[in-house]
Amino acid sequence: MKTYLEEHSDATRIFPWLADTSSSIRCLCVVGEMLLFPEDIVQFKQISSEMFRDKLAKKHALSTYRFYVVVCVGNEFQSKRIFDYYKLWRLLEREEMLEGFISRIEVPVQVGKEPYYVGIAEFGIEQLTTVIEMISDSPAMYTIICANHDRPSHCQELLDQVLDIGLTESGGLPVVEMVTTLTAQGYAICTWGSSSEEQELQCFYTATFL
User: Fold this and answer.
1) DSSP states of 50-90 as a string?
2) Across all residues in the chain, what is the average pLDDT?
C-alpha cells in the first residue's frame, strides 16, 4: 500500500465534473494506491483520516474547525410507514455508532415518487475516522462540510442550502453544486473517490480555508 497527499491549485483541471466551475476551487487529496486486500482499504481509511487531520492542524488549531456531515437515505423498506418511523438518524444508528453527533436534523424529501430523508449533524474531530468510513462506503449518501471559524453551530442554515439545491435525479446528494456553493462561502467539502487502482479522500476548498 502506498499513501500520499496531492494538492491542486485548480481543481477544475483535475476533475472533469468541475470543469464549468470557478478555477479558484482547490483540492487536497489523500490518495491510497495498491490497495490489494480488504484490510488494506480498512487501514487506508484510518490513515487518510490521520493525514487529513495533520494537514488541518498545520494551518489552524484543530479546535478552530467545525465538522458537519450531510446525509441522504432512501426507503429500503417495503412500507413507507416503517421508513417514516426510522427516518434518518434512527435508521443510521442501527448500523453506526453515532455518539458525539450533535444538533441532528432530518427532513423528508421527495424525488419524483420516491421518498428520502436528508439530514445533517455536527461532529468532533474524534469522529472523523467514523465519518470517513461512512462516506467511503456510500459517497452519494454522505458529504462532509468543514468550517475553520468559531461560529456557533448552524446546521439548519447549511441544510437549508442543500435543500435549496435539491437532490440529484437518482436521489443522491448534489455534490457538484455543494462544492461550488459552499466553497465560495469559505467552507471545505469532503467527498470520496475510488477506482480499481486507488481510493482517495477529496477535500475541495478555496484560499480562504487553507
Assistant:
1) HHHHHHHHHHS-GGG-EEEEEEEEE--SS-HHHHHHHTTHH
2) 93
